[in-house]
Amino acid sequence: MKYALVASLILQSSVALARTLVPVHIFAPSPDHFRPIVRNTTFDFGCRAVAHPTSDGKYKLHALLTEDQIEYLQNEYKSVDDISIRKDPARRSVAATAPIGTGDRFKNGTVTPVGLGTQPSGTKISTIMNVNEIPSAVQALAKAYGLVKFDLPYKTFKGATQWAAYVGAGSDKSKYHLYFSAGVHARERGGPDQLIYWVADLLAAQKAGTGLTYGKKSYTNAQVNSVLGAGIVFFPLVNPDGVAYDQSSSSLWRKNRNTKSGSSGGSVGVDINRNFDFLWDYPKYFDDSAEPASTDPGDETFYGTGPASESETKNHVSMYDSFPKIRWFLDIHSAAGDMLYSWGDDDDQSTNTKMNFLNSQYDGQRGATGDSAYREYIPSTDLTNIKTVSSATIAAMKGVGGRSYVSKQSVGLYPTSGASDDYAFSRYWAVPGANKVYGFTMEFGYSTNFYPTLTEFNSNILDTNAGFMDFALSAISVGLE
Ligand SMILES: *[C@@H]1O[C@H](CO)[C@@H](O)[C@H](O)[C@H]1NC(C)=O
Ligand SMILES: *[C@@H]1O[C@H](CO)[C@@H](O)[C@H](O)[C@H]1NC(C)=O
Ligand SMILES: [Zn+2]
């Protein structure tokens, strides 16, 4: 073997080793105990940091850490009795998780995808779609049902043409009110599949004049027609460069693959879900105690080089221009088992209209939760509306008959800046003439289990698809205009 090749293999394996992430559980008596830990942006808390109550009255925080980081934390909290740090005993090898499909089951857009809601109970989908099968699946839906797949204006860093699709309300784009996206965080496997199989179910059921069944949840043909009639726009693969990389490396990759700010290891890429133009420049807008994103390219929440600096973000935003009457937006993520509603930068309040994200008087004060120095304004009618839809969504997911989910405000344990859901809602105030969009984040799956087992992958399809149905039905009943 040539020296250069040996050297490069050694280099590759040490890079791979350095990024080996171990699922870790951190236990404490209250969510507040986690605040100093979640502030450290060098740690990876999954999609967002979430404190889960445990059966013995404590709280558990999931993280993905390197051996060095585990040692650092264990040392740091050695003499703190309240806090314990343990490797997840149930962690599993990549080999135990659902495989990624090889080839193209949709034969270049000629074999129509069929979801679980139109197949006999117990049917299983045996692999996760590979990055090339995702557009092929949607192309096949276009061929079978006349759904429209179209290209978006900006190419990704790796040169991929991005695309999205719309269906259900004819050719007038102002009749489309529901917007779904998935595949923002590369490692959150199964999100694109869930969305595409759901649209496939709706179209198959409409054509056959039937309803849909997900576990113990059933929907009538009239409900199917009503959901399609609300006009569905979807962008199922927001981060194709990241997904391609994650699927080929199984490295739990989150960001895109832009090398402008860093070209090796973990310094590659921007977190698309911290790159939107909502309080993006967080060192200016937030209190010093809050770390809603990171300015360090080496961190998982690196915010990029400017608001909407990334093509994926720009394409996401272009959908609001193309479909000016979008009213409800859902971004599909994993893994925590929750449905998050606005706002994500600080606690909500409905009394002081002046205390809002546009008011520079409050710069430097946002993001410290549990206090009254700053809380984000939300009209009380809007808060009622979004809580109604969020609760209906998790009730349906639970109604499938598997696990339970929680609905909560997205700020939770830890604020975010530049996230897609807050950006969606903020447009009404920040962008002249913009429609009001209610933005949500769904986190399917079990905490930090980004790579589901095959059983979990199929349960996630059933749970989310029932969730999407009730999200849409509840949105329709609250109002589309
Ligand atoms: C954050 O954690 C790293 C270890 O991953 C440590 O070296 C660093 O000092 C911590 N930063 C702060 C501000 O505590
Ligand atoms: C796949 O289908 C497209 C049309 O949808 C066609 O342009 C392309 O050549 C096909 N590719 C292959 C490899 O058959
Ligand atoms: Zn995510």
UniProtKB/TrEMBL annotation:
Pfam families: Peptidase_M14. Keywords: Hydrolase, Metalloprotease, Protease, Signal, Zinc. Residues 1-18 form the signal peptide. GO terms for biological process: proteolysis. Residues 290-314 are annotated as: Disordered. CDD domains: M14-like (cd06228). InterPro entries: Peptidase_M14 (IPR000834). PANTHER family: PROTEASE FAMILY M14 CARBOXYPEPTIDASE A,B, SLL0236 PROTEIN. This is Peptidase M14 domain-containing protein.
